[in-house]
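Hey, I'm writing a tutorial for new members on how sequence and structure tokens pair up, and I'd like a real worked example in the thread rather than a made-up one. If someone can provide the structure for the chain below, I'll link this post from the tutorial.
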Amino acid sequence: MSRSYSRDEVQAILASAVERQHGQGDQLTHDELVAIGKELGVSREAIENAAASLGDDVEVQRQMRTRVQGMRRAFLYHLVPFILVNVFLATLNFMTGGPPWFLFPLLGWLIGLGSHAIVALSPDREKIERQVRRRIEREREKERRRNQHGALSEGARRVAEAVHDRTAEMLHAVADALEDRTGADASKVRVEPRAAAAKQRVDVRADAAANDEAEAQADADEQVRRRSAR
């Protein structure tokens, strides 16, 4: 029959085993802690959550101590003027004589001071802890939103840069295509006038040659007629 252990006993046994294995006073790294948890069958996620929870508990305790100390300090700042002012009023009352009127402000202020003392000297730690945890959670949520906003802004910036680069590439490609087409048209325009001029010169020369041949033929016919007439 296997023996069963309570949660406190399990924690004490594990703490003692880790202390004996790694030596008293030595500290474990996070990776070593994860490795030990893996050997014990505890997942990495569970170790991460437990470590985060422990960090939250430490931060909560620190902020609680800071808040309690601030409350006690505020009570002292309240107590000092209470003593000074009421001593001054009592002295003034005794010096001027008459009924003890200084008791009225003393009693009224004493009620407020007593309420402040109860809150500062015996604070409701559970209420303070809830307030601190809510504050930590709000700060963590703000940090998470800032990170998300930063990631979205970075993603939007990268998309905008990619669109800009792609648009620039397309515009350059269109400009190169238009430049090539314009150059080809200009070459064609330059070639066609030259060809037309050359053809015109050939036609002119052909016409001149035909005219010369016709004139030569007419002269020959005229000479033949003259000879026949003689």
